[in-house]
Amino acid sequence: MATIIDGKALAKKVNAQTQERVAKLKKQNITPGIAVVLAGDDPASLIYTRNKHKKAIKLGINSILKKFPADVSQEELLTEIDRLNNDDSIDAILVQQPLPAQIDPEVITSAILPEKDVDGLNPLNLGKLYANQRGNYPVACTPRGIMRMLTEYGVNLEGQNAVIVGRSILVGKPLLALLNNANATVTMAGSKTVNLPSLTCSADILIVATGTPSLVKKTDVKLGAVVIDVGINRLINGKLVGDVDFENVKERAKAITPVPGGVGPMTIATLMEQTVDLAQWRHHG
Ligand SMILES: NC(=O)C1=CN([C@@H]2O[C@H](COP(=O)(O)OP(=O)(O)OC[C@H]3O[C@@H](n4cnc5c(N)ncnc54)[C@H](OP(=O)(O)O)[C@@H]3O)[C@@H](O)[C@H]2O)C=CC1
Ligand SMILES: Nc1nc(=O)c2c([nH]1)NC[C@@H]1CN(c3ccc(C(=O)N[C@@H](CCC(=O)O)C(=O)O)cc3)C=[N+]21
């Protein structure tokens, strides 16, 4: 039976540290602020938006939500981003993905000031990550949170086979760079991958981020693998599940993240932490 990686407990620890840092900044008259831009009504985005707003308020971070209908124009969004770029009370800007079809996500992420890009999706920040540059720059919160979980649970990455299923700019791509920078041997799969099970069976560390419930079954996992489930899927019966058949896979894995209570809470904790990082870097360099 696998160790259950407790994202909720770890997030609590990270949040406590963030709360202390916020209190210190407030003594210097600095209150970190985050702005979330939401266009349309993607269900996973709605869960994320609600949970992070609650957490920000609890930690003493200012949080504002800019909501747009699904038929919003690109110009309207760009005008809002420009306003937030120039708003001194805002340290962190997050534009929810996925965006409606008429919006080009590349145009949007490129418009966010790199110093306020809390998702690390601006090409400058993503480029720094891929080049494994030193120094301060934001990194996508879900991948950064996953790396923290792996470290806290003592998972050795060096020389290990890491397989990522899903190649989005938000999860798969930054994770590829982070694992590669940590000297893992990384393979990234997507919907076109031929014989996915044979690939996932070779993984010492398997990370799944596709949005397909039960994509990974017990027979798709190597005995003793570490399995990280990023997926957030709302079933018709209202139940929240990941992309991995948790109940069966946990019999084969060495360690596994549950949904809910795994990657999700760590994404939020990392988002709060990085909002405070951005505030500190902007005010103190
Ligand atoms: N827990 C958390 O904190 C977070 C959870 N999520 C969740 O993670 C999931 C993925 O989101 P996101 O990263 O934005 O991905 P996207 O929805 O942007 O893309 C999905 C990726 O999965 C791949 N894929 C889809 N179906 C299959 C399949 N059957 N076999 C192999 N690959 C497949 C696609 O391949 P291709 O490129 O070939 O089309 C694509 O690369 C969603 O459920 C989302 O809600 C996202 C962010 C944070
Ligand atoms: N620009 C951008 N960045 C993102 O990081 C991003 C995004 N867009 N769009 C949507 C996805 C999805 N996502 C979630 C994060 C946390 C939970 C979360 O809190 N999950 C709890 C759910 C608890 C519950 O409410 O039931 C858990 O897994 O335990 C869910 C989903 C971030 N995403």
UniProtKB/TrEMBL annotation:
The keyword Amino-acid biosynthesis applies. Pathway: One-carbon metabolism; tetrahydrofolate interconversion. NADP(+) binds at residues 166-168, 232. PROSITE patterns: THF_DHG_CYH_2. Residues 5-119 form the Tetrahydrofolate dehydrogenase/cyclohydrolase catalytic domain. Its EC number is 1.5.1.5, 3.5.4.9. Coiled coil: none annotated. Keywords: Amino-acid biosynthesis, Histidine biosynthesis, Hydrolase, Methionine biosynthesis, Multifunctional enzyme, NADP, One-carbon metabolism, Oxidoreductase, Purine biosynthesis. Catalyzes the oxidation of 5,10-methylenetetrahydrofolate to 5,10-methenyltetrahydrofolate and then the hydrolysis of 5,10-methenyltetrahydrofolate to 10-formyltetrahydrofolate. Homodimer. This is Bifunctional protein FolD. The gene is folD.
